[in-house]
Amino acid sequence: MDHFSRYSRKESHILDIWKAKSGLIPHEWNIQKDNTPYHDAKVILPDGTQFLVQVKEEEARWYTITGNIGLDYISAFSFIDKAYETNCLKTLNHWIPPKEISTFLKKIKVEKYGKLKTCDAHVHVFYVGGKGATGKTELPLLLKTYCNKWLKSEAFISYLKSKYRLRINNKKAYNIDESWHSAAFFLSPSDNMLRKGEIDTHEKLLKCIGKS
Fold this sequence. Notes:
It contains nine helices and ten strands. The chain has helices at about 5-20, 60-65, 80-90, 100-105, 115-120, 150, 155-165, 190-195, 200-210; strands at about 30-35, 40-45, 50-55, 70-80, 95, 110-115, 125-130, 140-145, 165-170, 180-185. It is globular and about 55 Å long.
């Protein structure tokens, strides 16, 4: 199976929904796929200006239960110390509390940081898909757009580290056979600091991409 093509088609579908339902993208703006390790698409304005977009689809079941979205902080890491790994996975049950995060980062070898640090897009689109009453029509349970400059800012990341636990993804629970670990912060879209970066008007979008 060509996983890249499958994921690419899904991202295109989400971008179509984003353009149709977010109220941010005028009809004449053209969205094109532009898959790189750091973003998923580009939007071309009539005057030739371009900006980049990252798409993050959240698991509907997780979102329905918790109301949280995930901000990917570390994509791949390994523990330096086996005893510390056991403490994090067993004693702390995959959740690193704020007071422990600085120690945790010294006890791991980061192979690749996540999109919270590496994404080069101007905007970050978060999406959760749901079904309509008939079960045939897809309706977004969540469709949020954020200015990526804010998500990557020192102020916001420091806030996350001081307030939220860092979740080591439990790959075994999802039958994911990978030798490395990954970690993310999970928070509600209603979080006030996260909302500072939310783009909910066309004017805010223009400001974020430097067109205001």
